[in-house]
Design a protein that fits this description.
It is a single chain. The protein has 29 helices and 14 strands. By secondary structure, it is an alpha/beta fold. Among the domains are: 2-66 and 460-487, no CATH class; 261-437, no CATH class; 495-506 and 563-743, Rossmann fold (3-Layer(aba) Sandwich). The chain has an eight-stranded mixed beta sheet with strand order 7-14-13-8-12-9-11-10, sandwiched between helices. Strands 2-3-1-6 form a four-stranded antiparallel beta sheet. Strand 10 and strand 11 form a beta hairpin. It starts with a helix and ends in a 14-residue tail after the last helix.
Length: 779
């Protein structure tokens, strides 16, 4: 079953690919995005237009009822360069380079309550109607109402201070101060209902700020001068006291200093340097003596060789006598070797040369001994000098310990005296600068661009409000449209069905009007077979017979698509049993089953419809309303199959109804019984197609019981009504049915509304040459 289902799906997809080849380029990339956008606009254009018109109306009403506001600007430069001599003599911390923190502080000063009160009093803004109206807060209005009801005048209820606070608050709301870029320029803006009034108040704020800066500088300089004068007197007294205490301490402890250092310390330092030099000299003499003694110990007196007497680096090599004797020794040695080779080793001349060489070596050895004695004498002298210096250093250290015990106290007194003296001199210099600056006050701010009456109003901005209304309304409309699309969790397009359910969408069946038709005279009655005439299918409902009544309509063409998908479905036998079901009731599965069966029968095939919706046999109620026997009677053996079948004499369509006499409680057991299997085997052998109208999947389990009987299933989904999660849940609970499904059918499709979802469908279905019949009945 699984392999056949896979093969069937492949063939169905091949069919779809061949039919929709022209659509493939548009479904990828930019074309798909454009199609989605156009479809969204077609679906939600009314919401977008309504929201845009509503937002534009609100904007117009706001512009109509909002009074105009004018804003004037004045620019102030903060941090003017001062004269050089004033900068050198300045006492205040504001002399530091201006940074962002200082500019922010100045902007807070501009918006302070003190500055606002000064301007309000200067311009008498308490009587200005603008500020009177804006100063009426909700609390003040409530107090006025209470005053009226209490019989007292409302103005007496509000104190003058509270009224001033409210006016100052309203003043601050209209005032703004911002820094222009990274410069030191502050732009002061003030809004009022009159352009002239706004410029006047803005200039008054700038002037009041500059005056406040001058007064603050003057007051700060005067306070600093007075403080410095008192501080100088105290510092002078403290410095003199500290210096006297230092001198008294030195006298008591016999401390003498020269060049900032104690005499004892200088003596210890000098002796320590001499001791280091003496120790180095002693070490050098000892090393020289040891070297000479080593040479003497390694050369015996009776040796004929010169040995190590001329060793490299020895003291002997620097002696001219030893060098001269060494040259003679080497010359004799050369001659002795020469004569021995020519005259023989025992020749008298060779023997004399050897005797001379021994005498020269003895002389060199005596000279080395003399040098050793000289080095020993030098070592003894250096050692005595070192010991003498060590004794002097120990005495000096012993003498300086008494002085060192008093040195920390002396250093502390000395540091205190120097600190007081330096502080006194610094404050004296600042005091002189303060006295000079007090008579020369300079403000750090000046106006560089005074305010002029603005030509245009600042609020409300008509263009911006209108644009905001239009574009905001459009954006809100688009958002609402997207919300509607997201909340629309029903099936609308074939692509949505395929992506959500992973099933092919076999057809989109249009919505039909249910028209009543006159009941034609049964053909069997004419022939005389009264019983057969009584089992003729009813044509009272035109919707069930629309496929043959309007063969060139959209409805009929969609039913043909279902038949083609069934024919392309590979099964083990050519006689196919097809089950028609849906997720929920009233989705039109019975109509699809009847239309499919009659269209197959109209083509000359042997086909029978079996109503297996045993609990709600709606198809039997429409096609065989007077049926007294049905599938239950056939299964029980009460009637034969031929006695229960109803027929249509025009198309030779057979119908096995479900005559509902009493409520059935075990319908799933009936459908899965052995008798039902035998019945369907008999129907398969007798008919080319067996169309089975099954109950819905979600409410009951009957469809799952019919999977051994059915070759393939078709799922009918109502367009625009059935929720996607309901269908997914129904298929999830019936995996055996899902495996046998060849596809789905979107039923009751509103083709006019489909233009808003799949515009290309309109081109397919509106061709007059192929769908010119049945346009009135199909909707």
């Amino acid at each position: 079953m699984l392999q056949s289902n896979i093969l069937q799906n492949d063939r169905t997809r091949a069919l779809q690919d061949s039919v929709m080849t022209r659509e493939q380029p548009e479904e990828n990339g930019l074309g798909e995005l454009v199609n989605f956008a156009l479809g969204f606009l077609r679906r939600q254009y009314s919401v977008i237009i309504f929201t845009a018109v509503l937002a534009l109306s609100v904007s117009a009403i706001y512009l109509r009822i909002t009074p105009p506001t004018y804003t004037a600007q004045v620019r102030v430069l903060f941090g003017n360069p001062k004269a050089q001599f004033v900068q050198q003599q300045s006492l205040l911390a504001a002399e530091a380079p201006i940074d962002t923190t200082q500019l922010e502080s100045q902007m807070q000063i501009l918006k302070s309550k003190a500055l606002a009160t000064s301007v309000i009093n200067q311009l008498k803004l308490v009587d200005d109607p603008d500020f009177k109206d804006s100063g009426r807060s909700v609390r003040s209005v409530w107090q006025r109402i209470r005053g009226w009801f209490g019989g007292m005048p409302p103005d007496r209820q509000m104190s003058q201070d509270r009224q001033m606070d409210e006016i100052a608050t309203a003043f601050d709301d209209r005032l703004s101060a911002v820094r222009l870029g990274f410069s030191s320029v502050i732009e002061i803006s003030f809004s009022a209902s009159s352009a002239e009034r706004a410029a006047e108040i803005a200039n008054a704020i700038a002037n009041a700020y500059i005056v406040d800066q001058l007064n603050a500088k003057f007051d700060a300089s005067r306070a600093a001068t007075a403080w410095l004068q008192d501080r100088l007197t105290e510092l002078g007294r403290q410095a003199l006291t500290a210096e006297r205490a230092l001198n008294a301490f030195k006298s008591q402890n016999n401390i003498v200093a020269a060049g900032g250092k104690l005499m004892d310390e200088q003596q210890v330092t000098e002796l320590n340097s001499r001791l280091v030099a003496a120790r180095a000299q002693t070490s050098e003499a000892l090393a020289r003596l040891n070297q000479l003694e080593t040479i003497l110990a390694s050369n015996s007196a009776d040796s004929a060789s010169i040995g190590s007497l001329d060793a490299s680096g020895s003291e002997a090599l620097s002696n001219p006598i030893i060098n001269n004797l060494r040259q003679q020794y080497l010359e004799n040695a050369r001659r002795e070797v020469e004569y021995s080779g020519r005259l023989g080793k025992d020749h008298l001349a060779v023997v004399n040369l050897r005797t001379q060489m021994r005498g020269i070596r003895a002389s060199i050895l005596d000279e080395v001994r003399r040098l050793a004695e000289t080095s020993r004498s030098d070592f003894e002298v250096a050692k005595q000098r070192q010991e003498e210096i060590e004794k002097q250093l120990a005495l000096a250290v012993s003498q300086s310990r008494t002085t060192n015990s008093a040195e920390p106290a002396m250093r502390e007194l000395e540091t205190s005296a120097k600190g007081y003296r330096n502080l006194y001199e610094t404050f004296l210099q600042r005091y002189m600068g303060s006295v000079q600056q007090e008579s020369f006050p300079i403000s750090e701010a000046r106006v560089i661009s005074p305010a002029a009456p603005p030509v245009n109003k600042s609020k409300p901005k008509t263009g911006m409000i209108v644009a905001l209304g239009i574009f905001g309304g459009i954006a809100l409309g688009i958002a609402l449209g997207f919300l509607r699309d997201i909340m629309d969790r029903v099936f609308r397009t074939s692509a949505q069905v395929e992506s959500t359910l992973n099933l092919s969408c076999l057809s989109m069946v249009p919505l039909l009007k249910d028209t009543k038709q006159k009941k034609p005279p049964p053909l069997a009655a004419v022939q005389g077979d009264r019983e057969l005439a009584q089992r003729t299918l009813s044509r009272s409902s035109g919707m069930y017979w629309a496929a043959t009544a309007m063969p060139l309509s959209r409805f009929a063409e969609s039913i043909r698509s279902i038949k083609l998908a069934i024919d392309l479905n590979p099964t083990k036998t050519s006689n196919k049993i097809v089950g028609i079901t849906s997720a929920l009731p009233n989705e039109g599965k019975s109509t699809i089953a009847a239309s499919l069966a009659q269209l197959i029968a109209h083509a000359g095939k042997r086909v029978i419809i079996v109503d297996c919706d045993l609990r709600n046999p709606s198809l039997s109620a429409n096609l065989a309303p007077n049926a007294t026997a049905g599938i239950i009677d056939v299964l029980s053996g009460a009637r034969s199959l031929e006695e229960a079948i109803w027929r249509d004499p025009r198309t030779n369509l057979a119908f096995l109804p479900s005559a509902k006499k009493t409520p059935l409680f075990h319908t799933s057991e009936i459908l899965s019984s052995e008798q039902t299997g035998k019945l369907f085997d008999k129907l398969r052998a007798s008919y080319d197609y067996v169309i089975v109208d099954l109950p819905p999947l979600a409410p009951i389990v009957d469809v799952r019981a019919t999977t051994p009987l059915i070759d393939c299933f078709i799922l009918v989904v109502e367009w625009g009504r059935t929720r996607t999660d309901v269908v997914q849940h129904a298929l999830h609970t019936a995996p055996n049915v899902y495996e046998a499904l060849i596809g789905t059918v979107l039923n009751k499709t509103d083709m006019r509304a489909m233009k808003r979802y799949d515009s290309y469908l309109n081109d397919y279905y509106n061709n007059e040459h192929y769908t010119r019949y049945g346009q009135v009945a199909a909707e």
